[in-house]
Fold this sequence. Notes:
It is a single chain. The protein contains 18 helices and 7 strands. By secondary structure, it is of the alpha+beta class. The protein folds into 4 domains: about 150 residues, no CATH class; about 60 residues, no CATH class; about 100 residues, Helix Hairpins (Orthogonal Bundle), CATH 1.10.287; about 150 residues, Reverse transcriptase/Diguanylate cyclase domain (Alpha-Beta Plaits, 2-Layer Sandwich), CATH 3.30.70.270. The protein has a 5-stranded mixed β-sheet. Strands 4-5 form a two-stranded antiparallel sheet. The protein is elongated, with a radius of gyration of 40 Å. The model has no long low-confidence stretch (mean pLDDT about 75).
Amino acid sequence: MTINQIVRxxxxxxxxxxxxxxxxAYSEVFCLEAKKAGFAVEDCSGIDRYVTLLDxxxxxxxxxxxxxxxxxxxxFLISKLNRLNPSExxxxxxxxSGLAKKMAESIDVLHNPEASALAKKTVxxxxxxxxxxxxxxxxxxxxxxxxxxxxxxLMKLNQFGPVDxxxxxxxxxxxxxxxxxxxxxxxxxxVRILIASLVxxxxxxxxxxxxxxxxKLRDNPQYIATAECEKELKTAxxxxxxxxxxxxxxxxxxxxxxxxxxxxxxxELIERSENSSTEIRExxxxxxxxxxxKPTDFxxxxxxxxxxxxxxxxxxxxxxxxxxxHNEKVTQMGKKIASLEAELAQATQASREDFLTKLxxxxxxxxxxxxxxxxxxxxGRKYCVAMLDLDHFKAVNDTYGHDAGDAVxxxxxxxxxxEARTTDIIGRFGGEEFLAILxxxxxxxxxxxxxxxxxxxxxxxxxxxxxxxxxxxSIGVAQRSDYPSMKAMLNGADEHLYDAKRKxxxxxxxx
Length: 511
């Protein structure tokens, strides 16, 4: 967790507890959040870090007077200075000013532009002997810097070697680079293509090992050039083939069973047809015999012709019944095959569909984002994303029950479908959070869509068991061209969503 997140948690806790936002209250809550997150913050160590800098006699006096806070320590030291003779106090102030100046000059040479700027300002004020107001503002600026400073960016070097946040030189000397920055983009392109090729073409799901490998490649594209990656790729490819093969075998097994039954029925039909044909040929021979041996009287001829016609009619009728029966069986089998094909298509769709809202699920959204990103990088096709989150949704579940929560989610999904264009992709990203991918759209158009959704939700009547539930939505929007990567864009949309929540909810950010 970063300092920024701890600051956010501190602000949320102050709001939730209804405390007055004094510096002491903020400091107290901030230190509690930092301790909870396991984050060591120097400002939260109390006065111990200052006492160790005092001489032994003064340190004993601090303990004797039971000084606890930084403010008390400052008052104690001021009182002690006032008790000194003026010349000694002047010398001490001059020494402390010189020390502060040297410390600021030292900070100025560090590799941080914000710290260097503050250090230069400190040196300038000390040299001009600025007043108490300037010094207080400068002190507040240093406090803000310490509160907001985030060195988590150093963790990006983990892939090249161990990171020591307390010793930057040691960290840099221990780094090992396997490739230049020039081919990083090429690695990313190869990784996107490779991950797409690892997705089974027939099987509905991907195995966990391949999913982990895909995530590892997304986080570190240069991993593709390692020997370990080659081994994992061979395993992933084999698993992909095995999954597809298994799915094909299952489908073929079902079709084989139907074909076997169908073949048996056709063979039986052919055998019956052959018997009927034999009997019909016998009838034909009877007619030929009748022609060769003509009867001498009409009655005999009529009797023999009637017998042949009756036999022919009987055989044809039997054949017609057999064909009708077999035709019905073939029709039934055709319906079963069509039903299985529909079930197969439904199963494939279900693997990409959220079970409750029937919108795209997170997997389908991520696949669509990958396609949109490829179109953006290759053809420059613009797109935006909108992160939507229902306000106070937990309170709906707690007050009305989870069935009511599901009803609200279904109604919200219907609103999204109504407001979206046919080219827009809407999906449930998790819980009460939804994501809209707006293709061929810039920020202005994306805001129009988001405002329509927000207004529609605000004016809609969400009813459950005859009781109306008040619902609103907060939305964060991000445009791809404003960010260096797709991941950064998603983080940007999430940050804007947080801003919307922080500014009172039921709004679109950036406004």
